[in-house]
Amino acid sequence: MLNIETLSFQYGRRRALTEITASSAAGNVVALVGRNGSGKSTLLRAIAGLTHPNAGNITWRGQRLERLAPLKRALEVAYVSQRPSLSIDLTVHELIALGRFASRSRLDSNLRIGQAIALMGLEALKDRSFHELSAGEQQRCVIARALAQHETNGLLALDEPFSNLDPGETMRVVGALQMSAKAGALVVVAMHDLSLVDRVAENIWWLEQGQMIAAGAPIDVLTPAKLEEIFHCEFVRGAQGLTLAARV
Amino acid sequence: MLAALLAAGVIARLLIGRDPAIGSVNFSWPESNILVLRFGAVRSAIVGGACLGLSGLLLQALLRNPLASPFILGLSAGAGLAAMIAAWSASMVAAGAVGWIAFIAHGADGVIPGTVGSLAVLILVYALGRRGGRLDPLTLVLTGTVVATICGALTLLVQSLMPPSSRGDSWMWFMGQVPELPSSGAMWTAAVLLFCSFIASFRSGSALDAASTGDDEAESLGVSLRRLRILLFLCAGALASASVALCGPIAFVGFIAPHLSRLLLGSRHRALVPASVISGAAILIWADAVRQSIDVGAGRLPIGVLTALIGGPVFLMVMRSRQMRTGAWTC
């Protein structure tokens, strides 16, 4: 269970998050939505235990992640940042193997790395240099690294993982994340594509200017009226789910 | 291959000699008194070069910057300035009156104050080299170059304040040298620091790989970045200082050694740590062997000049490489 209680965070004098309160059980996909600069990435970093909040707290299975030793925390939560970077020349396989840095079991590690490579469809690329890949392929590599890292009932925090992916790659990643959730993980994803959110997420946490303005199931939160008010675009909800109307 | 290169360098340095009477180069097993001197140079080159190679690798890995090295970032110059100030101040203190001050000031033949100097420069360059909250590789190098120039000027100033009798030695040291009769204090301190830093770096090899992914990702993978940086920056600073105390500031060995190792063994740090130690030693010993056969009319070519002539073009090649242009090295 992930519990966020009156969480506030600020960068210098700028307040990024204000008294956020939310919770979710494991086995769900939670989508963090909101406009650019609304605080999604900051909240995701806080959930992953990478920042110390100024007030309030976040607990995962009763533990405060930011207080755990990094090695112990890595076994609980895996994080994918918005812009994957790598300053040395590693192959795809070597990069994904970094996901097992905190693990002590080599046998288990090889199995998990192989599974992650297969799930992301990277078998043909595994001996290629990470730097030679397209942005979408690189994105799949870092997602595979997170899949190799997290334990079946752990926490996966991903910051806009679909931003560089084509529709086929997007559906592959969606499938992998849903599979992880079914296996007992909690998946928290910051994303912009509301049609995709509507289909993928069980829960939505909607942030605006660092405040949680809505939380709940997509059907309750993503109403066309609310979306038009926030984004000034017209959305329609039909048999295909939520779609952006042609007129903007 | 690197070990073979080092072994061949040792043999070459022991065999290459020069007849001072006619100035010609000869290759022969020397007499025992000459052999002792050449063994001394071999020991200095191995320890000094290994310190530079490992220090360069650690700086490149921790700063995620392929252009980093103790010389380019000004660590060598900072260590040199601090060691020179320590030597000058120790000479000013009346012997025995405040002996413990002299010991601290001139500790381990300059290694202790040199470490303080190199770490002070590292902190300064790290703070000034940030642009928009990020460490920009070229800004870092430019900052290091300016700080090194300032330290070099201050070193010359302190040198001019020293007694005339000791200026000759310090001038030779300032140009970089591989001493045939190294000071035992500097040699032992450098060897101990090299051993400890090697163990710490080798054990941190996987963490250094993970740290190359960016701060948030590395922390998320389980790396304690703060602990890793404090430990290995200390090692890099101490190694730079040890090499300066032993050989003076020698350009580019700490830059080339990690790149040569990467070219042969790839980017995994568990392999790069021993490889950079060996390649640093091999480069310095070969440079010392080659310079024995080059006479520029005023004696042998200073080793710092030779390494700069070789390392400078390599530096420019890396700076203009595809990875630098595409930003793969930025952090």
Any overview of this molecule?
The complex is a heterodimer of chains A (248) and B (331). With 248 residues, chain A is of the alpha/beta class. Chain A has a single domain (2-244), classed as Rossmann fold (3-Layer(aba) Sandwich), CATH 3.40.50.300. Chain A contains nine helices and eleven strands. Chain A has helices at residues 40-47, 70-76, 92-97, 106-119, 135-149, 167-182, 194-200, 218-221, 224-231; strands at residues 2-11, 14-24, 29-33, 55-60, 77-80, 155-159, 186-190, 203-208, 211-216, 235-238, 241-244. In chain A, the strands form three sheets. Chain A has a six-stranded mixed sheet, sandwiched between helices. In chain A, a hairpin with a 2-residue loop joins strand 10 and strand 11 (241-244). In chain A, helix 4 (106-119) runs antiparallel to helix 5 (135-149). The N and C termini of chain A lie far apart (40 Å). The model of chain A has no long low-confidence stretch (mean pLDDT 88). In chain B, strand 3 (130-131) and strand 4 form a beta hairpin. Helix content of chain B is 72%, strand content 3%. A two-stranded antiparallel sheet of chain B has the order 1-2. By secondary structure, chain B is mainly alpha-helical. Chain B has one domain: ABC transporter involved in vitamin B12 uptake, BtuC, CATH 1.10.3470.10. In chain B, helix 1 runs parallel beside helix 13 and helix 8 (184-203) packs antiparallel against helix 13 (269-291). The radius of gyration of chain B is 20 Å and the shape is globular. At the A-B interface, helix 2 and strand 5 of A face helix 9 and helix 10 of B.
